[in-house]
Amino acid sequence: MNRNRRVDLLAVGLMAIPAIAALLVWDALPAEMAIHWNAAGTPDNAVAKPLAIFGLPLFGVATVAFVRLAPDATTSTPGGETASILFLGVVFAWVETLVLVWNLGYRFDVLLATLPVLVLAAGLVWYALHRATS
């Protein structure tokens, strides 16, 4: 199996983990699930449970496919396709996990929960810049 395919499968696998976990706790989840929060940390958008559980990972898979298949001029992926796809897999899995945890009744500071994504994004930019100068 080539390296690109392994990276794609890793990214998709990461996105599948929260979806599988959600299936295990399906009955404990509300029929309408919060999927977006405002700056105050209050949910401001909710969707039906099936869309919340399966929509985000499906969107993630479509994004991975787009980044891998679209012409480089269209995507302009920082750090290259592989680094970007790994970033996407981790971020989608993180966001799916946050949605799941929140809808199971565990509350957390939403702004603080976005910090790992910002750190990863900064790391991706650093990697892209470092790679470009090497």
TrEMBL record:
The chain crosses the membrane at residues 7-26, 46-70, 82-104, 110-129. Keywords: Membrane, Transmembrane, Transmembrane helix. The keyword Transmembrane helix applies. InterPro entries: DUF1648 (IPR012867). It holds the Pfam family DUF1648. Residues 14-60 form the DUF1648 domain. This is DUF1648 domain-containing protein. It comes from Halonotius roseus.
